[in-house]
Design a protein that fits this description.
The protein has three helices and no strands. By secondary structure, it is mostly helical.
Length: 88
């Protein structure tokens, strides 16, 4: 079973379980807030990784006699940081 199938199946099972619980509106809001909060932490980690990668690239660029990064270079660093996080 691949990760995508497992993830979809697990999410479906989790959703079915949650629907079977007798949760009040405030309980649902609390649960939603916890889930959103955890994704914010992941987003923050990705941002820090991207920022660190960009700073490293800037330092390398300066060491090679260049003082500027192109927008494409910055975007590539962000993309690489996201891929690295996704593959962890």
């Amino acid at each position: 079973m691949n990760a995508t199938t497992y993830s979809s199946s697990a999410m479906s099972n989790l959703w079915n379980y949650l629907q079977g619980l007798s949760l009040s509106t405030s309980d649902r809001r609390w649960l939603a807030d916890r889930l959103i909060e955890s994704t914010k932490e992941e987003d923050k980690e990705i941002f820090v990784q991207a920022r660190n990668a960009i700073e490293e690239m800037r330092l390398q660029s300066e060491a090679n006699g260049n003082s500027e990064m192109t927008l494409e270079e910055i975007n590539e660093e962000i993309r690489q940081a996201r891929l690295a996080r996704k593959n962890q």
